[in-house]
Amino acid sequence: MTDKVQELYDAAFEVLPYLRASVDPYDAISSIAAPARLSASDRLRKEAEEADKRDAAILRFREALANFAASAR
Fold first, then answer.
1. How many CB atoms lie within 10 A of CB 35?
2. DSSP string computed for 2-33
3. pLDDT digits (tens, 9 = 90+) for 5-47
């Protein structure tokens, strides 16, 4: 396996936790109960951190995909 393929695999696996089915029964309960225990500022801070993590994973995946495509030519 080449470095570009491994990079693509690693980036894809990093994105997977952020892909959730809308019918996921396990995450629905925790997403409803968790915000009730946090203050408004803590909830917003947590949402911002999660958004930053998700964005970084997506950008890494895009870059790995572009590198893979460029090396395939």
1. 14
2. -HHHHHHHHHHHHHGGG---TT-HHHHHHHHH
3. 899 999 998 888 887 655 555 555 565 566 567 788 888 898 8
Half-sphere exposure (Cβ direction) of 22: Cα atoms closer than 13 Å: 0
Rounded CA gap, 52 and 65, in Å? 20
Instruction: Supply φ then ψ for residue 58, to 5 degrees.
Output: -65, -45
Read off the pTM.
0.68
Pair of tokens at residue 3: 């470095």
Tokens, residue 35 = 């915000």
Q: Which are the contacts of 18, defined by CB distance < 8 A and separation ≥ 6?
A: 53, 54, 57, 58
Q: Are 70 and 3 in contact (CB under 8 A)?
A: no
